[in-house]
Specification:
The structure is a single chain. It contains 4 helices and 16 strands. The protein has a 10-stranded antiparallel beta barrel. It is elongated, with a radius of gyration of 22 Å.
């Protein structure tokens, strides 16, 4: 896999099995035929987009895993580090690489809404980091288990509206959806530093550990408005692809947040419900900074990698 401009990261590794269990929803996360608007219908059932009042509700719940790679920078108490970690790097150091990842979507005719949640705690080895503004007497810790720890809770919710549908031959269709909502962030960055000289840690506001000190950003919490588009193309009643892109922040709280997703969905029709599996790729970026007590705390990251997931649809 080619690296993001910031650096490198390639997905795969020993945590793949766990990731796959969780990954099953992210691809489902941002659209699929049945999960989006007019997905594959049971045999003999015709989808209707002209009368939302008479259209049935379509529900989908999913769980997924994201083989995450991370590139960018973290700043805690004014101590900035560049990070560039692949999925394999993170598996080796993270307490909770997968955490919890889930998705829910409901649609009725041309309108709907969805919610997506990601909770994880990532650990970075000192070899995947570089100290951007080193303080004399401090260096990225090789004593602590991790050079830095990044905890994230990301919840997004949005309404969707089908702007247009292009009908194809039997069993095929293309639809374009608009979406608008918000993305909630709760992030914490802890940078572990070894003391190699005489440093006034109390002045810097660092926490003392055994053989090292920690600069912590504390909880960074904010909400970004988000708008985007989703394109769904159904090849057959049981196969489709989804492309999604959104952008937000607009300087209101974060400077910028963006997301891109592409996924392939396979659907199996059973009596009264459907099972679906997805493989895809997701990238999520954010640029946020704040200043508390004169110390800068910031998160400027791109999270990216393959997604694999599974869902049930009614």
């Amino acid at each position: 896999m080619s690296r993001v401009p910031l650096k490198n990261a390639t997905p795969s590794g020993p945590g793949f099995a766990l990731v796959v269990a969780a990954i099953l929803a992210a691809a489902l996360v941002h659209g699929s035929p049945a999960a989006g608007q007019q997905a594959a219908q049971p045999t003999g059932q015709t989808a209707s987009t002209t009368n939302d009042d008479g259209a049935p509700w379509r529900l989908r719940a999913a769980s997924y895993g994201w083989l995450m790679n991370v590139a960018g920078s973290l700043t805690a108490k004014g101590q900035a580090v560049d990070v560039d970690a692949s999925f394999i790097d993170l598996v080796q150091k993270s307490d909770s690489l997968i955490g919890y990842m889930g998705y829910f979507e409901a649609n009725k005719g041309t309108v709907g809404f969805f919610a997506d949640a990601v909770f994880s705690r990532l650990g970075f080895a000192s070899g995947t980091m570089s100290y951007r503004n080193p303080v004399a007497g401090l260096k990225v810790s090789t004593t602590a288990n991790t050079g830095a720890t990044y905890s994230m809770a990301i919840v997004e919710a949005a309404g969707t509206y089908e702007l247009h549908r292009w009908a194809g031959t039997a069993g095929t269709a293309t639809a374009l959806d608009a979406l608008a909502g918000f993305r909630f962030w709760n992030q914490t960055a802890d940078v572990n530093l070894d003391v190699t000289g005489t440093v006034d840690l109390s002045r810097l506001g660092f926490q003392r550990g055994i053989g090292f000190s920690t600069a912590s950003s504390g909880n960074l919490t904010w909400i970004d408005p988000v708008i985007g588009l989703r394109l769904r193309h159904q090849f057959t009643p049981s196969q489709d692809i989804v492309l999604l892109g959104d952008i937000g922040g607009f300087g209101l709280q974060s400077n910028l947040t963006w997301q891109a997703f592409a996924g392939y969905n396979a659907v199996w029709q059973l009596t009264g419900y459907q099972l679906a599996a997805v493989v895809g790729f997701r990238a999520l970026g954010v640029d946020y900074s704040s200043s508390a007590g004169g110390a800068v705390n910031s998160v400027n990251l791109v999270l990216y990698g393959p997604i694999v997931g599974g869902s049930i649809r009614f």
